Amino acid sequence: MIVGEHKPIEEIIESIKDYSNVLVVGCQTCVAVSLTGGDRAARSMTEALAHAFKESKPLHIFENSMLERQCEKDWIKPFFDLPQGVDAILSLACGAGVQTMADIFKGIPVLPGLNTTFLGAQDAPGVFNEKCAGCGDCLLGLTGGICPIARCAKHLLNGPCGGSSKGKCEISISLGRDVECAWHLIVDRLKELGKLDNYEKISEAKNWTPGGAGGPRQLVHPGETPF
Ligand code: SF4
Ligand code: SF4
User: Fold this and answer.
1) Considering every ligand atom, which ligand is closest to the CA of 156?
2) Quick check: is 172 in a domain?
């Protein structure tokens, strides 16, 4: 799923301070799971902003609204009528959701309430870890299902580096928490799978064109017309 974090409240306050009627809109899909964009998060944001502006200026924060998915025009158009007088939208969606909303509500600024951070998985309740960097040419078949691009701090295709110690990545020191060395995990997994011969294969320099270096990517299914 796409994981997002709340922007600092001071930054959000600054971004909406010139508007009078702000609608907070949550998104019920990925960022709801990562606890930053769903119903409860949108309600908390609405309350926090109402409180922040209580004495400084007459800003009306509308009751929050929810959309199932802000990244799909088909989900936005039929289910969303803007309340009268809204002059800005604070979107608690990922960057794709914010931009899709901005495409639909062209005359109204759509401001991001989240920082979109990574593609990840929930490994324990409330704990999300980055798992994929969307490189466009997946290597997981070679690496035992562990991504060296998203999970190795140096994005090494042939690892581990000399900083791996007792299975931990050297980045653990600066992060102040234990981070598994992705390549240590890969070797262990390949052993379990009886596929250590994969580890003997040297990966060539990666072509990053499908990963975005070739420009914005698009997927078109046959029979569908891109917007
Ligand atoms: S190899 Fe690429 S597509 Fe596969 S998980 Fe890693 S970043 Fe994602
Ligand atoms: S210690 Fe492991 S995870 Fe960390 S940068 Fe080196 S190879 Fe990558």
Assistant:
1) 2
2) yes
Burial (CB count <10 Å: 0-12, 13-18, 19+), residue 166: exposed
Which ligand minimizes its atom distance to the CA of 120?
Answer: 1
Domain extent, residue 146, equals 136-203
For the segment 211-224, what is each residue's pLDDT rounded down to a tens digit? 999 999 999 998 77
Structural domains of the chain, count: 2
Average pLDDT value for the chain = 94
Shortest-distance atom of ligand 2 to CA 162: 6
User: Is 23 inside a domain boundary?
Assistant: yes
Q: Considering the chain, what percentage of its residues have pLDDT values greater than 90? A: 85
pLDDT at residue 225 in the model: 64
> Residue 218 has what pLDDT?
94
Distance, CA of 30 to CA of 20 (rounded, Å): 29
Strands 88-92 and 21-27: parallel
Do 84 and 22 share a structural domain? Answer: yes
Residue 226 included in any domain: no
pLDDT tens-digit series, residues 22-41: 999 999 999 999 999 999 99
Strand partners, 211: none
In a domain, 60, yes or no: yes
Q: Under a CB-based contact definition with an 8 Å cutoff, are residues 45 and 64 in contact?
A: yes
CA of 22 to the centre of ligand 1 (A): 38
Average pLDDT value for residue range 95-110:
97
Q: Which of 118, 117, 119, 105 is nearest to 25 (CA)?
A: 105
